[in-house]
Write a structure and sequence with these properties.
Layout lengths: L19 H28 L7 H6 L8 E2 L2 E2 L3 H14 L1 H21 L2 H12 L5 E4 L15 E5 L2 E12 L6 E8 L2 E8 L5 E5 L11 E12 L11 H35 L1 E2 L2 E2 L4 H29 L5 H25 L11 H11 L6 H13 L6
Parallel strand pairs: 3-6
Antiparallel strand pairs: 1-2, 4-5, 5-9, 6-7, 8-9, 10-11
Helix pairs in contact: 1-3, 3-4, 3-6, 4-5, 4-6, 6-7, 6-8, 6-9, 7-8, 8-9, 8-10
The structure holds 3-thiaglutaryl-CoA and flavin-adenine dinucleotide.
């Protein structure tokens, strides 16, 4: 029987299931997050800005488009991508969001559905962090039902003319290129809209209480002329954007574990030091049960994500499996963050502690990339064969 004390953040020793190169990626990103990201994130959150100075470091580590083979990308497996997300989100969901959008929502569709010219132009520049992307799917009238999008494009000679608006778009005002999904007479197509195209404007959404260290905005298209060469040739249906979401949602299942681990680590230390009624909080049954419950949820989430990653690397991933994990892991993380905030008492509302920042961020993470309800209904559809969305 093992007599060594278990790692409180990894009770089932998931670490031993990782290959050496996966552990190396995880450790490298963890160092970056501890040394360069965490010192900036609290202030960035308070000041409501994305710390762009981190982009160079993130790019130098090969974290942008890390799953893509070629085009100056790292060609890492899905488990590595998950571990990257986990470490980044241990720092802040806004930092993981930046990498998710660039990698899964912009570089992925260019790689999967783009022409050779589009790939060569954008992917190496995006991997180096010299070009930033955003992904426009959600519209103001309702993000859960993207099939009902109003943004549309019409052919006009060799160009397309694009009209409409997108809302709640990460990186909107700092992006060099937006992957914009629009209805056409030929189905839903992806357009690479560049920041200086006439008729294309953006506006930042200010005063958010969540993901304050991330840029969120709206995109507006007023007769924007997009050349045929900037339309993704490889897909003409909702399958295009939804398959990007599968990549990003997968990363989120790992990411939120990092946020939850940061909260657990914080309250483990706090309850050891905080003496009430003559003994440290950690000596009470009620607190131990709450800490144990956090560890249970983190462990379950870790096992789900690792299994999901192995399935993905075998090419056998089903979207409803991703839905189940996104639902479970986001729910676990937000419940842990809220409970951690409560255990910290009054200190829990101070920015000195990270739990409230993670808690507020997770309100976005549980909403974007499919709300909890959307994922529950996706799993329900898988089980019953009945589509209950309508
Ligand atoms: P449905 O009939 O289910 O599917 C239409 C076509 O798409 C295919 N498909 C998928 N392909 C890949 N991955 C998936 N997850 C897929 N789900 C469906 C499907 O096979 C079909 O293909 P084809 O070839 O036959 O056309 O479409 P539906 O309209 O019934 O979908 C229902 C629903 C609710 C599941 C879907 O609309 C949905 O997922 N809604 C939620 C929308 C959402 O998540 N938006 C996220 C916007 S991006 C974002 O939030 C970024 S945050 C980034 C950050 O900062 O980190
Ligand atoms: P709605 O779709 O209007 O949903 C409202 C409520 O209705 C929710 O509780 C939902 O669960 C519920 N609901 C929906 N359908 C049903 C049903 N059938 N039965 C019962 N209840 C239902 N989008 C992008 O395209 N790109 C981005 O980069 C991006 N970044 C984002 C960043 C942030 C910080 C945030 C907050 C959002 C971002 N989004 C982005 C948008 C996000 O994907 C949407 O907010 C999300 O999909 C939900 O859409 P909605 O906000 O319009 O809510």
């Amino acid at each position: 029987m093992a007599s060594q004390k278990l790692d409180p953040l990894d009770l089932f020793d998931i670490d031993s299931e990782l290959a050496e190169d996966e552990q190396m990626v995880r450790d490298t990103v963890a160092r970056f997050v501890d040394e360069q990201a965490i010192p900036l994130m609290r202030e960035a959150f308070e000041q409501h800005h994305f710390p762009r100075e981190l982009i160079t470091g993130v790019a130098e580590l090969g974290l942008l488009g890390s799953s893509i083979d070629g085009y100056d990308c790292a060609g890492l497996n899905s488990v590595c991508y998950g571990l990257i997300c986990q470490q980044l989100e241990r720092g802040d969901s806004g930092l993981r969001s930046f990498v998710s959008v660039q990698s899964s929502l912009v570089m992925y569709p260019i790689h999967a559905f783009g022409s050779e010219e589009q790939k060569s132009r954008w992917l190496p520049a995006m991997a180096r962090g010299e070009a930033i992307g955003c992904f426009g799917l959600t519209e103001p009238h309702g993000g859960s039902d993207p099939a009902n999008m109003k943004t549309h494009a019409k052919r006009d000679g060799n160009d397309w003319v694009l009209n409409g608006a997108k809302m709640w778009i990460t990186n909107a005002t700092i992006a060099d290129v937006a992957v914009v999904w629009a209805q056409t007479d030929e189905g839903i197509k992806g357009f690479l809209v560049e920041k200086d195209m006439p008729g294309f404007t953006t506006q930042e959404i200010e005063n958010k209480f969540s993901l304050r260290a991330s840029v969120t905005g709206a995109l507006f298209f007023d007769d924007v002329r997009v050349p045929e060469a900037s339309v993704l040739p490889g897909v003409s249906s909702l399958r295009g954007p939804l398959s990007c979401l599968t990549q990003a949602r997968y990363g989120i299942t790992w990411g939120v574990i990092g946020a939850a681990q940061a909260c657990l680590q914080e309250v483990l230390a706090y309850t050891e030091d905080r003496v009430l009624f003559g003994k440290p909080l950690s000596h009470t049954q009620a607190i131990q049960i709450r800490l144990a419950d956090m560890a249970r949820r983190i462990t379950t989430a870790q096992l789900l994500s690792l299994r999901l990653g192995r399935i993905k690397d075998n090419g056998e991933l089903s979207p409803s499996q991703v839905s189940l994990a996104k639902w479970n892991n986001c729910r676990a993380a937000i419940d842990i963050a809220r409970d951690a905030r409560d255990i910290l008492g009054g200190s829990g509302i101070s920015a000195e502690y990270c739990s409230i920042r993670h808690m507020l961020n997770l309100e976005s993470v549980i909403t974007y990339e499919g709300t909890e309800t959307v994922h529950q209904l996706s799993v329900g559809r898988e089980l019953t064969g009945i589509n209950a969305f309508g």
